[in-house]
Design goal:
The chain is 54% helix and 14% strand. The protein is of the alpha+beta class and 70 residues long. The protein has two domains: 29 residues, no CATH class; 36 residues. The protein has a two-stranded antiparallel sheet with strand order 1-2. The mean pLDDT is 88. It contains two helices and two strands.
């Protein structure tokens, strides 16, 4: 993916100062705080949230089934 950048701080940017660069070279992800540890933490949190809510739903379903049979 390419993004347009401007070499000067003028608005609007002159055509001679515009350049299309790849996203990976324009943005330093580590400077934004996107490290492998941060991504792993967010991924693990999301997986545990999904599994936790699934387990909660399963327990509620079992309890409702037991109450209906009684």
């Amino acid at each position: 993916m390419y993004v347009l950048t401007c070499a000067t701080q003028t608005v609007p940017c002159p055509l001679a100062e515009q350049a299309a660069v790849s996203f990976s070279s324009a943005v330093d992800l580590a400077a934004l705080g996107l490290t492998s540890q941060a991504l792993l933490y967010v991924y693990a949190w999301g997986v545990m949230a999904v599994l936790g809510l699934w387990a909660l739903g399963w327990v509620v379903g079992v309890v409702v089934g037991v109450i209906q049979r009684a």
